[in-house]
């Protein structure tokens, strides 16, 4: 798929996720948006839309700390994996 078409589709699926949150009166946050995109990804059969949803999810995770997985946040904050800091001596 061409890059500009993929970017447009990414914006569309992001808008669909936000609209779904608004329609259901859910709080809009990085975490709720990421969860909605994950739900969309599980149910999507179209390969191009799946790719766009994955890109949108990556963008949300990179912009909103609340959308990141706890392990991912630790790696970004401390530059190491959580398992490294939990080793028993």
TrEMBL record:
It comes from the Bacteria. The lineage of its organism: Bacteria, Pseudomonadati, Pseudomonadota, Gammaproteobacteria, Enterobacterales. It comes from Pantoea allii. This is Uncharacterized protein.
């Amino acid at each position: 798929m061409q890059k500009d078409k993929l970017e447009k589709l990414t914006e569309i699926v992001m808008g669909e996720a936000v609209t779904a949150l608004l329609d259901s009166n859910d709080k809009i946050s990085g975490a709720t948006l990421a969860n909605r995109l994950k739900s969309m990804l599980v149910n999507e059969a179209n390969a191009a839309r799946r790719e766009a949803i994955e890109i949108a999810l990556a963008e949300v995770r990179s912009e909103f700390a609340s959308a990141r997985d706890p392990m991912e946040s630790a790696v970004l904050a401390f530059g190491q994996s959580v398992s490294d800091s939990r080793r028993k001596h």
